[in-house]
Amino acid sequence: MTDRTDILRVSPPLPRKRRLSPSGVLLHAPAKINLNLLVGPRRDDGYHGLDSIVARVSLYDRIELRARDDGQVVLACAGFDCGPAERNLAYLAAEAMRRAAGGSRGADICLDKRIGPGRGLGGGSSDAAAVLEGLNDLWLLRLPRERLGEMGASLGSDVPLFLGPATARMTGRGEILSPVEVHPFCAILVLAPRLACATREVYRAFDERPAPPDRQLPPETFREPPSAWRGRLANHLADAACRVCPPLGEVIDDLRRATGLPVHVTGSGSGLFVLCDDPAEAQAVAAKIPERYRPSCVVVEAG
């Protein structure tokens, strides 16, 4: 009998940044998982109050930045569709940095998009944070991290997350971060189905049926093996995501039946994850995943 775990894709941790030359830098922009996501009502400024434990994980977009001497920002994209350049967060981050540098700097951005959009994995926000950091280094701007965080927050609520701690409690509209320690051997089986959930639509559906108030789990909870707390997690957007995208609920049910474990939604969906105590458990759980879902599965590490 063939061992089904031998075809499981594992994504190892990669370095955040590597200099290619005096005029080039390679960046790995990680995905994120919302371990626990509580959402409050819409605020006067149009945003929802958030309280989430969020972990960066070892699934990456790959970005190469190379300096130009003509003051232009040019985006080239491979992999998943990056959308129009003028709406792409990596491009918008580079434009923000170009303005901060006085408008005279330019860059080529080669984005290899491996984190699918509309999965709640934060790929676009991570790309923006990586570009802010990368151009700050490439152009020798030496802007303080606080300034990069402010620029990131102006681009999107999740961008500051990728400039902060590897695992954090995220509050406000996403800009307030405090570090959280996660169990060191935690392994996460991520499934990114070929389903997309538009964030705006999910929040609109959430507003129609808002979640009752809830309390965040104590931060020390996450130091324990995930088997001690994976059944206690919540995502206030999960129900709305399944109403916006009904096939997502079917996938969740399939995975729960197959694995016998809690299956969670990250962000506004459609990305799903199963928490495991260590890589060996992740491999064993992956062996139970139905074959039709396996091409969309990857085992990652938190942090």
Describe it for me?
This protein has seven helices and eleven strands. Helices cover 26% and strands 29% of the residues. By secondary structure, it is an alpha+beta fold. Helix 1 runs parallel beside helix 2 and helix 2 (123-138) runs antiparallel to helix 3. The chain folds into two domains: 4-9 and 181-301, Alpha-Beta Plaits, CATH 3.30.70; 17-178, Ribosomal Protein S5, domain 2. The chain has helices at 89-100, 123-138, 145-155, 199-208, 238-244, 246-259, 279-286, and strands at 17-21, 24-42, 48-68, 73-79, 106-113, 167-172, 176-179, 187-191, 264-265, 272-276, 297-301. Mean pLDDT is 94; it is low at 1-7. The strands form two sheets. Strands 1, 2, 3, 4, 5, 6 and 7 form a seven-stranded mixed sheet that branches. Strands 9-10-8-11 form a four-stranded antiparallel sheet. The protein is globular and about 55 Å long. The chain starts with 16 loop residues before the first strand and ends with a strand.
In short:
With 303 residues, the chain is α+β, with helices and mostly antiparallel strands.
CATH topology of the largest domain: Ribosomal Protein S5, domain 2
How many distinct beta strands? 11
Count of helical stretches: 7
Structural class: alpha+beta
Radius of gyration: 19 Å
Tell me, what is the CATH class of the largest domain? Alpha Beta
Helix content: 25-40%
- How many domains, as an integer? 2
Bin the strand percentage. Answer: 25-35%
Q: Based on the structure, what is the oligomeric state of the protein chains?
A: single chain
- The end-to-end distance, rounded to whole angstroms, is 35 Å
- Rough shape? globular
Uncertain segments are 1-7
Question: In the CATH classification, which architecture of the largest domain applies?
Answer: 2-Layer Sandwich
